[in-house]
Structures
1.
Amino acid sequence: MNPIQILVWEGQHDFAKRLERCLNREDSPEILRYDEEAEHPSSDAPMEAEIAFISTSALRRYDRNHLAWERIQGIPVIWVGSGDQSVYTATSVSDRVVLPAYFNCASLEAVLRHTLRSSPRFGENAQTGISVEPEKPHAELPLHKEGSFLYQAACMQQLVANSRLYGALSVSVLIRGGSGTGKEHIARMVADAHPEYRNGPFVAVNCAAIPDTLFESMFFGHIKGSFTGAVRDHTGYFRDAHKGTLYLDEIGDLPFSQQVKLLRALDDGMIHPVGSSEAIKTDFRLVTATNRPLNRMIQEGTFRLDFYHRIAVVELYVPTLQERGPEEKHLLFNAAMRQSLNLYAQEVCELPDLPLWLKEWVFSYSFPGNVRELYNKAARMAAYYLGHHRFEQAECLHLLCTEAMECETPEQDELPDFSSRTEERSQVLQALEKNQWRRSETADALGWSRKTLWLKMKKYGLSD
Ligand SMILES: Nc1ncnc2c1ncn2[C@@H]1O[C@H](COP(=O)(O)OP(=O)(O)OP(=O)(O)O)[C@@H](O)[C@H]1O
C-alpha cells in the first residue's frame, strides 16, 4: 500500500516535524510541504494529497472561504489556528474544529478523528491509513518551585541557575523582560543568593513614580527642617538598603536628569542627605529591572550610556510566556487554577478535568500580559467553575477574551444593514434554518464571519 500523502501548508517551521512525531511511524505518511515561496495549493485543480493541514491565515490571502476550499479540493482539510485568539474563538464555536498551531498529540488525535468522520471521503468507519501514536502514559512534567515562583521550561531553568550564580557575586544586575514575566521574583532570587546581602533588607522602588522635586529626598534622605514639610529626619532608599539589596524597578522610566544624580551616588556609595553637609557611606547590592528597550533608548539619547554601564554588569532576560512554550503555559494555568479554587472556594476544591477546548485555548493563546495575565484568566475560570460547576464553552471563551479584542462588538462594516433588531433576528433565524443550523454555512450565506454570527446568535438568544 502506498503511504498516505498529507499536505501541510502552515507557516510554523516545526509544524510538519511535530506532526510526524505524533503520527504513527508504522504508517509512515508522506508529508508534502507547501510554504510561502514554493508552489502553494491555491489552484483550482484537486490536490494529490488525501488530507491537508492548512493555516486559517492562508484563507485571508484568497478570496475564498474554507467550504469553497474543501469543495474544490475534495479532500478533508484540518484548519490550523494561528494562535491568534480571534481566529480560535471564531472557529471553535462553529462546527469546524481548528487545530491550534501549538497542538499536542492528544488534540491532534481528537481533531483528526472528528474531521475524518465528518468527511464524505472517509466517513464514520473509514480506514484512513493514518493514526496517531497511542498516548504514552507519562507523568506530568515536574513544575519547579522557588518559593511561590513556578517554572518548568529549559530557558527558565537556565534563568534560575544564572540568577543564583550571579546573585552570589556582588555585581549589579539588570533584569530585562516583558511586563508580568516575573522580574520581581527574579530580583528577589538574585538578592537571596548573596551570602551577605541576603541577610539585609530588600528595598523595592518603582522608578516610574518619583516626582522630580522629591527625588533627592526619597533616595538620599533629608534632615528635619531642611525644607517646608520636612518635619522629621528621613533616611531615604539608599540608607534603607544598607547591607541589603536596592531593587530599582522600571529603571527605563527614570528621567534623564535623575539618572545623572543616581549615577554619582552609585559610583562611590556616598550620599548627601538634603540639608546636611555630611556625606554618608552606603553599601548595598543594586538590582534593576525594565521592560523598556534600553539599547534603543540609548541610541535615541533618552537613556545614559554611562548609567547603563553602571547598572548592567550582568543582564538577565526573563522570557515571555510564549517563548517558554505551550507546556509551561499549561502547567502554570493548572497551578494558577488550583490556587484560585483554593482561595475562592468555601471548602477544599480539587482541580477539575479541563475540557479539551480550554486546554487548547491555553496552548494557542499568546498571553501578551504574560504570567500576570495567565493568573487573571485562570482566576476567571476558577470563579466561573465555582459558580456553575461546569465549563460552558461559549461563555468561558467570552470571559477569556481580552479587553483589547472587543469581544462584544463586531466591526460595523462586517454587518449587513438591517433596519431593525426584529428583522435582523428573523433573518438570522431563517438563514440558520435554511442551513440546518450549521453555523459555518449560515455565516457564509449571510456573508459574515463565524465570530459575528456567534455573537449575533448570543444576542438574539439563538445559541444553546
Ligand atoms: N513563574 C511564576 N510563578 C508564579 N507566579 C508568577 C510567576 N511569574 C510571575 N508571577 C506572578 O505574576 C505577577 C507579575 O509578576 P512580577 O510583578 O514579578 O512581574 P514583572 O515582570 O515585575 O512585571 P512589571 O514589569 O509589570 O512590573 C505577580 O503576581 C507574580 O507573583
Note: The chain has four domains: 5-117, 154-318, 322-405, 412-459.
2.
Amino acid sequence: MNYSTLQISFSSLLPLLKTLPNCSSLKPAIQISVKSASRRIFVMNSSSKLDSRSLSLSTCQVPGLEPEEMDSVVEQMFRRYSSSSGFKRGKGVAIVWFRNDLRVLDNEALYKAWISSEAVLPVYCVDPRLFGSTCYFGFPKTGALRAQFIVECLADLKRNLTKRGLNLLIQHGKPEEILPSLAKALGAHTVYAQMETCSEELYVEKMVSKGLKTVVLSPTSEKSASAKSSAARSPTFQLVWGTTMYHIDDLPFDTNSLPDVYTQFRRSVEAKCEIRDCIRLPALLGPPPSIDDWGSVPSLDKLGLQPPSVVKGMRFIGGESAALSRIYEYFWKKDLLRIYKETRNGMLGPDYSTKFSPWLASGSISPRLIHEEVRRYERKREANQSTYWVLFELIWRDYFRFLSVKYGNSLFHLGGPRKVESKWSQDKNLFESWRDGRTGYPLIDANMKELSTTGFMSNRGRQIVCSFLVRDMGIDWRMGAEWFETCLLDYDPCSNYGNWTYGAGVGNDPREDRYFSIPKQAQTYDPEGEYVAYWLPQLRMLPKDKRHFPGKMLYFEQVVPLKFGDAGRPQSQDFARRKTFGGKQAKDFRR
Ligand SMILES: Cc1cc2nc3c(=O)[nH]c(=O)nc-3n(C[C@H](O)[C@H](O)[C@H](O)COP(=O)(O)OP(=O)(O)OC[C@H]3O[C@@H](n4cnc5c(N)ncnc54)[C@H](O)[C@@H]3O)c2cc1C
C-alpha cells in the first residue's frame, strides 16, 4: 500500500475557504496529512498511544489548537496580562527595537518606550548578518526552518501590535544604519531594546549606540522630549534586561562571582530572590507616529532560503499567539503540567515536554509569564514535583544566560570556560555521517533526522547525540554546536554553547562531564524502538527488541565500531578520539 503526505499551503486553500461560512479568522499553516489509500484524514493525536505503522504519515502542529480556539485563548491571556489602570506618560517619540523579544506581553522595553513618550515606533531590522554563515565551519547561520519560524513570529507581532493601536516597521538592513536614521527623521528621544549578552549581539549594540551619538536632535523640535532644554542632544540608547526568569539585578551575587555549580546557583536564587511579576501594559498603546511604508514581513525567498516543509514530526507555529496557546494547551487543556517530571525525558510526540523553547528563544513568551501561569495552575489545580520541575528547568536556562555574562567569549572557544586543552578531530566524513543521520546507530540517526526535518530535538536526544559526536567520534564539539545553531528553532547562544561545553567536558563545572551509552539510553528511553522506527521507517519491519541493533543487513554500516563494555561504555574512552585524531584544528577566532 502506498502512503503519501499531502501538504496544502494556506494560500492555495484560501480562495476556496473564503467561500465557506465562518472561515474569516482562519490562520495559515494548516497541514493535513492524508492516508491516500483510504482518503482518511489522519491528524496525529499526541495524547493517544503512537502507532508506528501510521507514524510515517503524521505531522502535528504545535500547539495543536484550532484557529478559533487559539484566538479566544490569546484574547483571554492578553486580558489577564494587561493593565486597566492609567499611566502618566512622557513626551515625544520613542523607538522600540525588537530583536529576540518578539512579544507584546511582559516586554519591558516596550513598556519603557510607551511610558516615556506620546508615540511609540516598534521596529524590527532584518539583519543580513543573521543569514550569513556560522563562525568556524561556514554552515548557514539561520536554517530555513528557524527563518520560517521567525517570519511567523514577526507576522504575529505585527498583528498583535496592530490590535493594540500600534504597528511594526520592518526594514531590511543593519540596525546601526536603520535606527539612527529613523531616530533622526522622527526626532525620537530614545531607542529602547532588550539587552543581550553574547558578542555578536553586543557588537551590533555597540554600533547602534555609536550611530545614535552622531544624530543631533534639534532642541527646538516639538518632537523632542526635552524641548525645554536649550542644548542640542542625541537620542539616548536604553537597554533593558528581559530574557530571564530571575532579573539580573535581583541576583544575590555579582555575575563575576556566579557559582560554578548549578545546584549552588539554584539554591541561592530560590532562597534569596523573588521572581518579578510580569509587566502589564494597557490594552491600547497607539497611535504610532505617522509612517508612509511600514514594510512587510519578509518571504523566505527574499532571505535567500528555500521555504521548508515539515513532512514528519512536529511543526511549530511561530509567534506570541502560538506561545500563549501552547501554555494553555499544555497546562490547562491537556493537564500535562501535572505529570511533566515523569514524561520530560521522552523523545516522541509533542506532549512529553512543554516545547516552550522555540518561543522562549525568539522572545515570543517571557519566562516570567510562564512562572505566573505555573503559580496560577498550582493555586487552581495542584502544586507537585512536576509543577516545580518546569521552573527548575527554566532556572537552567537562566543559569546559562548568566554564565555567558561571567565567561564571555570563552563559551565559544575550543577549550571552553575552563580552557581545557584536548585534541579533537575535524574528520569531515565522520562529521557528515553524524549530521546526516548515517552513523549506523539508530538512536543517533533518528535524532539527527528529526533535527533536520523539524528543527527540534528532545533534551534527551540532544545529550545523546552530543555525547556520541564528542566522545565516541572525538569530533570538535564546535562542529556539532554550529550545526545545532543552523538547525534549531530554539537556538539560543547561551543555552546552546553552554550545553555543548558541558557535553564536551569543557564547561565551567568539571563535574558535568557525562558519557551517554547508546545501548543504555536506548533501553531506558526507547525500549520498544518506537522512536527510531518513526524516523527510520526501514526499522519498522524488525521485532521491537532488534530495532536498536539492526546489524548491517538493513542499515548503514556503523561508522564508529564501538566496543561496549559491561556498563555500556566504550572499552577505551579515548578509542575514537585516537583513531580519528589528525584533522586540522580550527583557528580559535570566534567572537
Ligand atoms: C547539546 C545541547 C544543546 C542545546 N541547545 C539549546 C538551545 O540552543 N536552546 C535552548 O533553548 N535549549 C537548548 N538545549 C536545552 C534543552 O535541550 C532544550 O531547552 C529543551 O529540549 C527544549 O524542549 P522543551 O521546551 O520541551 O523543554 P522542557 O523540558 O519543557 O523545559 C522547559 C524549558 O526549560 C528550559 N530548559 C530545559 N532544559 C534546559 C537546558 N539543559 N538548558 C537550558 N535550558 C533548558 C528551556 O527553556 C525549556 O523550554 C540544549 C541542550 C543540549 C544537551
Note: The domain at 413-580 is CATH 1.10.579.10 (DNA Cyclobutane Dipyrimidine Photolyase, subunit A; domain 3).
